[in-house]
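Treating backbone geometry as a discrete language has practical consequences that deserve illustration. The sequence in question and its structure tokens are set out directly beneath this paragraph.
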Amino acid sequence: GMQSHLQALLSLYKLFCPEQVTITLPGKMKTYFRSSEGPWKAAIAAVRQRNQGISPLSQAVFLGTSQPRSRKRKWNAQLVIPASSANTSHLQEDREKNCFYLCSTNESFPVEQLQTFPQLLQNIHRLEFPSQMGSVLTNPLLLHYMNCVKDESIYLRLYYWMGQMLQEECPWCVVDNPCEEEFRSFLETIYKAECFLQEGFSACEEFLYKTLPLWDGFCCRSEILRLVSWIPLSSSSDIKSYLYDPLAQLFFTSSIYFKCSVLESMKELLQNWLNCNVIQVDLESSS
């Protein structure tokens, strides 16, 4: 029967081998297969128009999506812990009283009142996490909390937010993006958080695997190679296809400085893997 998914498959066959499909297909149908050539076509068109002195008429964003998001809301606005709505109308004296009261009850503890490590220890099971997950990256106490309390929902919220921001701000995946310095600062913030936690973020790993084939080896070079050094240990086949192969293409055609930078990043990646493996072995032996 002419079901929608079968029509989409037949239309794909007809695109590449029209002689194999003789039936007439409807002009409008649901899209089941995205074009894998979208990013390359957009990048080539942008370079061609730039060389002709004409600004791109349209912006192609990350991996084939059509419309860029509005840049009215900056990513760095998400790195400040917002005050809880319950406390915005109180004076400082009232906040201090509330803080004392919260320490003696079972109510949640507003995260913007968290100032010292002893406060974290006393209220670690009553923290009210911020709505802006990006603020966790710049707050050592909240990073300590993530290390101590393995709450999957916190990681899922952070990874979702981080993945969205990396996707929308990446200069070489968004045509004619003028905010390279902001993105460089964002990558540096993520790297410092990974060093603090001594582990890489899965959202960052996914971003690297998707964008390294499109990377020119120049934009945000030091920040990208630092993030590469924190990729979690995974199967050798994934590492080869998603990490080594894209870097090898740049490695053999780049300067000696780039080659040394890549080798240094690989050495740090190996050291991080060894450290993580030693910690895991120690935990297993102690249990």
